[in-house]
Amino acid sequence: MDEKKEKDALEEQIRENLQRAFMEKAQENVPDRFMSLLAQLKEQDEASHGEE
């Protein structure tokens, strides 16, 4: 039974660490280069829909 408790505690620790790492990444700013590429794609999409 102790082995199961240890495994559960380890899984909980892993889950918490993954959540913490994800939240840190999710709060970072999107790089300017990526935002520029998204803007270009949006312009292309709008231009192609405007021609239909």
Supply database-style keywords.
mainly alpha; elongated; 52 residues; 85% helix
Description:
This protein is mostly helical and 52 residues long. The chain is built from two helices and no strands. The protein has helices at 2-26, 32-50. The longest helix has 25 residues, at 2-26. The protein is elongated, with a radius of gyration of 22 Å.
Biggest sheet record: none
Strand content: under 5%
Domains counted in the coordinates: how many? 1
For the CA atoms, what is the radius of gyration? 22 Å
Terminal Cα separation, in Å? 66 Å
Sum up the overall morphology in one term: elongated
Mean pLDDT: 91
User: From N to C, what is the helix and strand string?
Assistant: HH
Q: Number of helical segments?
A: 2
Structural class: mainly alpha
Query: Which range best describes the helical content: under 10%, 10-25%, 25-40%, 40-55%, 55-70% or over 70%?
Result: over 70%
Q: What is the count of β-strands? A: 0
Indicate the low-confidence ranges by residue numbers.
Answer: none
Q: Strands, helices and their partners?
A:
Blueprint: H1 2-26, H2 32-50
Concise description?
It comes from Marivivens donghaensis. The protein is mostly helical and 52 residues long.
